[in-house]
Design goal:
Helices cover 36% and strands 26% of the residues. It is α+β, with helices and mostly antiparallel strands and 331 residues long. It has 2 domains: 32-144, PurM-like, N-terminal domain (60s Ribosomal Protein L30, Chain: A, 2-Layer Sandwich); 159-321, PurM-like C-terminal domain (Phosphoribosyl-aminoimidazole Synthetase, Chain A, domain 2, Alpha-Beta Complex), CATH 3.90.650. Helix 6 packs antiparallel against helix 10 (285-295).
Amino acid sequence: MEFDSNSAGEFAFIASLAAKAAKAPEALGLADDGAVLWIGDGRKLVLVADMLQAGIHAMPNASPAQIACKALRTNLSDLAAMGAEPAFYLSTICWPKGTDEAQKQDLIQALAEDQKRFDVVLIGGDTIGGSTPFTISITMLGWASGPLLRRAGAQIGDDIWVSGTIGDGVLGLEVAQGKASPAEDTDARFLRKRYEYPEPRLALGVKLAALVHCAIDISDGLIADATHLANAAEACLCLDPDRVPLSDAARHWLETEADQDGAMEKLMAGGDDYELLFTAPEEKRTQVQKISKDIGLPLRRIGGVIKGQGVRLGRGGIPVRKPGKTGFTHF
């Protein structure tokens, strides 16, 4: 089924919240990856927030340090999807009662290392103890001096592009759960790392901001997030499964599956990839390819925007069917 903002669920709740409580222009209708404050002199302060909890966004036995790093990176990914550069963040943590001091120190060290790598600084937050699993919420602030990337804006005739590789996140989760056992240990390590420590595409987002029509980061799954772009544009995104880029590890897994179409759709519907999905005019292909070369990140054209609604799977720009799977929602 396709997402319907009138039906019950996570996205219906967000739509209702936007209509009744988030009426300021800075909220962007809660329809994008973040909010924006116009500072002046062309500068924009972009704010994003994300909450992660053990057992939902990470394995129940995942270390607080690993979950905190993932929380930092998923927020950075939201900034990338807006074309902003990171600057500061606030962190709110709920520690399960009885957490030992060593785990807290491990989290501090892990965050300090990621802060240095991604050039972002902690400026505040809150910490409590509670009866829930380890939970961390991060609010990230970043700067954008040029145009903002938004979810709305796809146009009929646009190319659809995606960065990196798709499906590693869902396979990494299955490796962590013991549901998937790749033949190669290197595949297992690669997939699990992709799930636990996603790579925010910050350099890409900044370079795309003045070039493309819209963008989103793939957190809930390629199909689900393509649906968000389609709904925002009141158009149809036609995706070609044969063109969706896969890592060697994901391709090795796919080769073992009897139902190739179903397995490929699983990869396209799985979340936690944190790649960027965007649309751009056909005449921008050379420029997009140059960006790919300049930053050393593969970008693949995987379909086109056509008349219609929602997402369709097809080849050669000809829609064949609705996807049988969509993606992750919280409720």
